[in-house]
Structure formats: C-alpha cells, structure tokens
Write a structure and sequence with these properties.
Layout lengths: L1 H24 L13 H27 L3 H6 L2 H41 L10 E7 L8 H16 L4 E7 L10 E6 L12 E7 L3 H5 L3 E4 L13 H4 L4 H7 L3 E5 H7 L9 E4 L9 E7 L14 E6 L7 E8 L7 H11 L6 E5 H8 L1 H35 L1 H9 L4 H30 L15 H27 L3 H5 L3
Parallel strand pairs: 4-9, 6-8
Antiparallel strand pairs: 1-10, 1-11, 2-10, 3-4, 3-7, 5-8, 6-9, 7-8
Helix pairs in contact: 1-2, 1-12, 4-12, 4-14, 4-15, 5-10, 12-15, 14-15
Amino acid sequence: MLSLIGGVLGLLIAQWTVDLILVFATDSIPRSTEVGIDYRVVFFTVAVSALTGIIFGLGPALQSSRADLQETLKETPRTAIGGRHRLRQAFVIAELSLTLVLLIGAGLLIRSFYRLQQVNPGFVDEHVLSFTVQLPLQKYPNEQKWLSFYHQVLDRLRSLPGIQDLSVTSRVPMSGDDWQSGFQVAGQPPPPPGQGPSMEVSVVGPDYFRTMGIPLLRGRYFSEQDNRLNLSEENLRNLDLDQRLRAGLKTIIVDEEFARRHWPNQDPIGKQVLWSGSGPTAPPLTVVGVVGRVKLYRPNEPAGFVQGYFPFLEMPQYGMSFVIKSTSAPNQMIDVVREQVRAVDPDQPIYEIKTLAERRAESVAPQRFNLLLLGLFAAVALVLAVIGIYGVMAYSVVQRTQEIGLRMALGATMKDVLKLILQNGMTLALVGVALGLVSAFALTRLMTNLLFEVTPTDMTTFAGVAGVLFIVALLACYIPARRATKIDPLVALRYE
C-alpha cells in the first residue's frame, strides 16, 4: 500500500515537473510537444511501485518469520537498535552519499552557467530587435532591385520614433547561420593545397557595427563610399549573378583575431586579402578596419575561424537580416516593423523576429536544460535524504525512550540527551558526506564536456555543497533530538 501510494504521488509530481521542464527548456528538447505522461509511463510506475513494495516488504517479513522467540524476549532496546538499525543507517549513509554527488554536479553546472552568462559576446544585446527578409529572385532578379528594396525599408524604419540605430547583415550572431570561406593573405607564401585558412564571412551595412555595439579597434567602419558606383552595366553584362555580386568587392573589415594571427606586431590597415570566393582573377580586398571579436554561435565557442566583414553596398545579398536598436522595449516594435516592410512590398513576409537577448538565451539553452534537469534530481534526492535521516533518528528516539528515561533518572541533563542524539545522527551524516565526496571526486570528471571555465573537482563547490548538506542533516537530526529532551523520565521508565 505504501509503495503504490508513493507511486501515485510520484506520477502527480512527475506531471508537474515535466510541465515545468517544458516551460523552461522547450527549445532544448526535440519534438517537445510530444513529451508527456502516457499509459506506458503509468504502467511502468505502477509496476516499479508494486515491485518495490514486494521486495522491501518481503525482506523484513522473512526476517520476522525466522525470529528466535527466546532471543527476541531477551533483546534489550540497545541490542535491538544495534542489530536492526544498522541496515537503516547504511541506507541513510548511501542516500546522503548519492545526494551529495547530485548536489555537487548541480553546483558545478550552476557555477559553469554563471560563468557562461558573464561572457562578453562582443556585441550589445539590449534593446536590439532582428528579423530576416528573403527576397524572391523572380520578383527581385538583380542586385539593383535588392539594394532598392533594402534602402526603402531602412529609410522608412529610420523615420520611426524611438529608433536609435539600424542596419542589415547577412547573419545575426547566435542565430545559427554560418558562412565560411577560404582566403590568402597577399604578400605571404601560399599554403599547401587544402590547408589554407578560412574565415567566417558576414556581409554588413554601413551602420552595422555601431548598431551592434561592436568596437572599432583600428581604421574605420564601412561608409557610403564603399559601394558599386565604380561598376558600369557594360562591365557586368557578361557575368553571371555570383560574378556580378563579387565584382564590386574592394574592402574588408577584419576582427582582432584575424589581425593577430596574420599580421602580428604590424598595422593591418592597408593590408590586402585574396578571397577565394571572389574568383581567381578578382582584385585583392583592402583592410580598412579592425573590430572586436564576436561570438557568432554561442558564448563558450572556441577561437575557431577568424572573422571577415564585407560591405553590403559592394556585395549585396537577396537574403538579409535587419538589426534595429531602439530606445524602448524592442518587442513592442514588431507590428510597426511589419507595417513598414509591407508598405514597401505587401507580399514580402518577414521571419525569425527575435531580440538579440532572446537569441543569446537560446544559444545557452542546452546548458540551461542540463542545469534544470540535474538540479531537479538533486532537489528530489535532498528531500529524500532529509526524510531518511529524520526518519531513522525519530525511530531511534522512540526505540531508545526507556534508555533515555534511565539516563535522565540517573542525572543526565537535557543538553546531554540532545548531544547524544545529535552525535549519533551527525555521525551518519559525516560518513555519508565523506563517501559522497570521494564518489563525486571520481564521477564529476565525466562532466568535463558540460562545464565552462570550471574544473570538475572545483574545491569551492565541493566544500560549499558538503557544508550545506551537513547543515541540512543537522536540522533533520535536531527535531527528533529536541523531542528526546522532553521525555518524562517516569513515563519513559514504564515505556514498552
């Protein structure tokens, strides 16, 4: 009966917990709409509950059926405690040990997630809204029409109240978009075939870096002078679409990692880069600026490829994203933004409408989900451990009622009784914590890939969690210990 009631309560808690997980970690769980408690879960829970009741009920039942009547009658409370309670104490120690392992794992993830949140992404995500537009080539067949559309939308958005800065880009940081391409530094020996460097490519508008808060370290940002006005239609007539786009490319802005790797201790401004994407006969690109490095995918991404930025006015794209920095909450502008795009082209949809803060939150969604899941398991384990040690100590006090009464009748004070019970309980806690620390030291090494700037044997986490568990165990022991001090010696001596 106890195990089945526990199983039913467990199902109710599970339903609430699953709903909680789906609220906080929907983006981290594939097909999250299909996650829930179904008949298989119910059947499994009932089966496990019944099996638990049988196994843990059968053991004591068999032990009682084989009891020696004479030995049982001669048993004193102390010998009963020493014999029958050892198994309970072992369970409590094991429970505390496992709880400590889970709590330390959750503590490591908390410290790791905090460090992850403190990483500077290289851009400002406050009050910045982004959305994407993909122009149909049937309606917008060439770069002139693309430029015309984007200029009209930018002009309309720029006239809105509350707009601080805005621009366009081929990829929004932490959106999942990627574009890598090979290159060669002019004036340096060409690398062996297949071993050349690659860079992360972004095509951006003139005001992109200011809108995103990406700092300029050297040189200048792109401006209106970085355009295609040097090209004539006669120059472009015999080129296909890709060749037409790359024909106008003359300048590039690189990130600080690009400059450090390829021009150490040199001024990169004026240096030239041969971009493989522009074709073998294209002229080199001149570096006009160096900007700060941006986390393009996630806060904990490795150094990876260097980053290069091309001017949108020299190489426009038919699919671009807008970034808008506002003075108010950016989500309040979504409807207004839709109206402005619809005013330019009523048939043109926009999608991927998100703030940069939302994109950054999504980039750490897997880490947040791991933290939530392990944190829930650790919380449940802590509750079970507290109930376990409280139950053992409370039962011990009941079994030792006569002994406690005898001690008080012979002169033991309330302080002595309190110390006696607490000492027994804290001995269990100390052994459990010690075993848990050893286990955690061995098992947390498996979490290395889940941690960021935190070692799996972080002493601060180990000491802090062990101290918290020890204090919680002390409180669980204190209640039955306090109750023991209130035992009336005369009543206790007659207690059976």
